[in-house]
Design brief:
5 helices; 17-stranded mixed sheet; Diaminopimelate Epimerase, Chain A, domain 1; 17 strands; single chain; alpha+beta; 2 domains; 38% strand
Length: 276
């Protein structure tokens, strides 16, 4: 016997292996609780995701809300934004749209060959915006390896290393995510320069762990590389799941890449009741 009268429909999407459960709540309440989010995130007993994204009605084309797999929220998720932009562009037949998030207003547009570009907004470069625990130079933090801190609506800590492949991501990512310098924890990236304006990067996402790709992390790493004089402002970022092209332009950081809609489904009433 179930308490619920209605199930919840969802779509599974990914951007370069960075995977999402997307719930369209434009015409109904999403019905989410922290317990339900973590239950859906379980890759054995739920669906599994790096982030869960909710589409809500807004003052523009849509408003987006993001959850991490541990049930915490995030103000930004670049790859999920691109995936949802692809869905909304296909629905509307338009070539551009405007989305709102906790990060602010984001713009998306067709980029040709099935690719989508999203403007993630200007980077946050001051210590209080990122935020950090105290005033310091964000270009080289007082941590081993002197990483660079960048805000993209969420905090990022980027290490530039000789070989990103050789880094123990599980150990080092977990270590720096919870460093006292980051009161809201941080995403952690390890990047190597492999060619002119060409980076190889691996990602540890706060509240998630290792991910195959991260849009906001790619933007933050591109900004950090340009600030440190390693690259120009247009770069190719190769992640475990594929490639993103980042352009730190005058109007914000544009991110371009592929998306995939994997399947659509709905949660059973039994699952929803058990997860509360």
């Amino acid at each position: 016997m179930t308490d619920r009268q209605q199930t919840i429909r969802f779509e599974k999407m990914h951007g370069l292996g960075n995977d999402f459960v997307v719930i369209d709540a434009r015409d109904r309440a999403d019905g989410l609780t922290p317990a339900l989010v973590t239950a859906i995130a379980d890759r054995h007993c739920g669906v599994g995701f790096d982030q869960l994204a909710v589409i809500e009605s807004g003052t523009h084309d849509a408003h987006l809300v993001f959850y991490n797999s541990d049930g915490s929220t995030s103000a930004a998720c670049g790859n999920a934004t691109r995936c949802i932009a692809r869905k909304l562009l296909d629905e509307s037949g338009n070539s551009a749209l405007t989305l709102t998030t906790e990060r602010g207003t984001l713009y998306a547009r067709e980029a040709g060959d099935g690719l989508v570009s999203v403007n993630m907004g200007p980077p946050q470069l001051s210590w209080e915006e990122i935020p950090l625990a105290r005033e310091m130079d964000t270009l080289k933090l007082p941590l081993p390896g002197e990483p660079t801190a960048t805000g993209m609506g969420n905090p990022h800590c980027t290490f530039f290393v000789d070989d990103a492949e050789a880094v123990d991501l599980e150990t080092q990512g977990a270590r720096f995510e919870t460093d006292a310098l980051f009161p809201q924890r941080t995403n952690v990236q390890f990047a190597s320069l492999v060619g002119e304006n060409h980076l190889r990067m691996r990602v540890w996402e706060r509240g998630v762990g290792p991910t195959l790709a991260s849009g906001s992390s790619s933007c933050a790493t591109a900004v950090a590389a340009a600030r440190r004089g390693l690259t120009g402002r247009q770069v190719q970022v190769d992640l475990d799941g594929g490639t993103l092209h980042i352009n730190w332009a005058d109007d914000g950081v544009w991110m371009t890449g592929a998306t995939m809609h994997v399947f659509s489904g709905e949660f059973t009433l039994d699952f929803l009741d058990a997860a509360q």
